[in-house]
Amino acid sequence: MKPVNLSASLTSLTRFLIDRVIPHHCPICYREMTQAGLCHICWHSLTFVSEPICESCGRHLPSSGPVRLCGACLHHPPLLHQIRAPLYYDGAGRDIILQVKYADRLDLIPVIARLMQELATPLITESDMVMPIPLHLWRRLSRRYNQSAEIARLLCRHAGASQKFMAGHLYRQHHTASLGRFGLAKRRHILRRAFAVREETRPLIAGKHILLIDDVMTTGTTMTSAARTLRKAGAARVSGLCFLRVR
Question: Which 3-state string (H, E, C) describes 164-197?
Fold first, then answer.
C-alpha cells in the first residue's frame, strides 16, 4: 500500500477549507470569485500586444512579411537589441500599475509577474544580468520601493535565475522631473545624463548581455538612456522588457 503523505494531505485540506471560508476576490475590482486571479471582466479588459511584432522594438506590425522590422527601426535602428512588452497601457493593466506605484499595492507584483513570465523567461535565460530601471534616491525614499526592481526580482526567481538579478550597478545620478507631460525631445534632454554605472562594477558589466526591466514604456527614452549608459560602460548588448507599453 502506498504510504499517505500526511503533511501534503493536511496542506490540501487547509487550502480547501480556507477557499470555502474566505472567498477569493479579484485584486483589481474586488469582485468575489471561486478561485484566485483576475475576474473575467478585468481579464478581458487587458490588451495584449499581438503578433506579428517588430523583431527589434516589439511594436505590432500591420501585416507579416519577410522583413519583420517596422519602418522606424529600418530607418533608425534602436540602441537596444530588442524590446518586449506583453500588454498595452490601458484597461486593467493600467489600473494594476497605477495601484502598485501610488497605492502601495505590492500584492499585485505577482499578478504582473505572471502576465510577463512567458515573455520574460527566454529573455532572462539569454541574458547575463537582469537590471531594473533605477529610481533616484529621493523618489525611492518617498515611494519606499522601486516597483521595477520588485518585478525584476520575482521574474528572475520564477525563471530559476535569481543570481542574475543585479540592482545597484546602474543608478540615477540626477533627480529628474516626472516625464509624463513632456514630449520626446524634452524627455531626451532631461534624461541625457540621468544614469550612471558604479565604477567598481564596470568590470562585471564589460562584454555582458544585460536585460533591463521597467514597468511602463511610453516613448522608450528612459530605457534607451539607460542602455546607452550601459553600452558606454562596456556592455556588449542591452535588451529591454516592460510590463506595459503606450501605443
Answer: HECCCCEEECCCCCCCCCCCHHHHHHHCCCCEEE
Q: What is the pLDDT of residues 174-224, one digit of tens each?
A: 666 665 555 666 666 566 778 899 999 999 999 999 999 999 999 888 999
Largest CA distance in the chain: 72
Rounded to two decimals, what is the model's pTM? 0.85
Q: What does the chain come to in residues?
A: 247
Tell the burial category of 120 from Cβ atoms under 10 Å away from its Cβ (0-12, 13-18, 19+). buried
What the block records as the C-alpha cell of 216 is: 511602463
State the Cα–Cα distance between residues 81 and 212, nearest whole angstrom: 11
CB 45 within 8 A of CB 39: no
SS3 of residue 144 by DSSP: coil
CB of 176 closer than 8 Å to CB of 186: no
Residue with cell 542574475: 164
Give the three cell numbers for residue 153: 526580482
Phi, psi angles (nearest 5°) of residue 185: -60, -45
Domains and CATH numbers, the chain: 8-44 (no CATH), 48-245 (3.40.50)
